[in-house]
Amino acid sequence: QNVMAADSRGNIFYMRAGRVPRRPDGYDFSKPVDGSTSKTDWQGIHPASDLYQVLNPPQGYMQNCNIPPDVMMVDSPMKPDLKPAYLFGERAGWINQRGARAVQLLAQDDRVTPEQAIAYALDTHCLGYERWVSALTQADEQYGQDYRANTDYQTGLRELRAWNGRADPDSTGALKFYYWRQALNRQAGARQARDLAAKIDDLLAVVQRRQAKPFSLSADENKALVTALAAAMATIREKHGGLDVAYGQVFRCGRDDKSWPVGGGSLNQEGMGTLRAIGFAWPRPDHTRWGASGQTSTQIVVLTDPIRSWTQPPIGQSDHPDSPFYRDQAEKLFSPGRMKPSWYAWQELQGHVYSRTELHPAF
User: Fold this and answer.
1) What residues pair up with 54 in beta bridges, in sequence order?
2) Averaged pLDDT for residues 276-282
């Protein structure tokens, strides 16, 4: 369990917490062990001081987007070989798009303003997209001759090469990237798609502060990039009636019969795992996908005196369909990618009170 804490004095703390049993040496507890002998019995419980933790790292920041401790920051002090492997608790030396993007943003600036922090939390950048677009460009130069007269293919190629890598609601390039990567996954199959991604992606370059490694693709892999783009453009036209369709026309947030466009998402298989984490439900009959999980309680907190904070609930505060607060925040905050201030003090509430209920004790 990843636990982070901070206080108003500027301290930050992380612990990989849990009630962890002491394991005897000589056994691989990542696999079944013999339970018929006392030699494999637990030898008590580790105290909290044994667990992976860090207080006030010199980097001045920490983040965890469901990644291991060794990549939570540049030069993380939490290395997997410092303690028993079962205390680390997972494979080391890997990172996802969200985690790498968080490190990229936090490591580049030692003073982050509240406005920057809000922008980080709602960031829609798809880290590493440019390597995929570069791969497609090279593949097209070698194997795209069969599609020179295919106007949809050419439109897709042109928009992807001009795309800024942001999964914004009004981006047509973002939607084309999504359908292209989806078509590639289906064409290649899960294993080959993973192998191809392992060649092109180099997310660890951010944490290791180095240039991304060069990559080289086989003829079959290059051909797959090209044919997947043609297939993706055909799919967009079939499902949406044309290619001039923006990301937010497909990816939505809402409730019941109303929805609004949204940016970002946890489309990890398509290489679009943004810092703004939104898990989308399966496509509806109209081919839209609505947010169903992810950042359900996004909050930025500045531990000043008084405390300042901003929040962004994804839908609304009320579960009553006739309430004006049933889905208002989906429309006014979540869709446009904004946050609202929290009103801690009584005077801050003035002018924002919609209703008042007085409770009178019966005794």
Assistant:
1) 14
2) 97
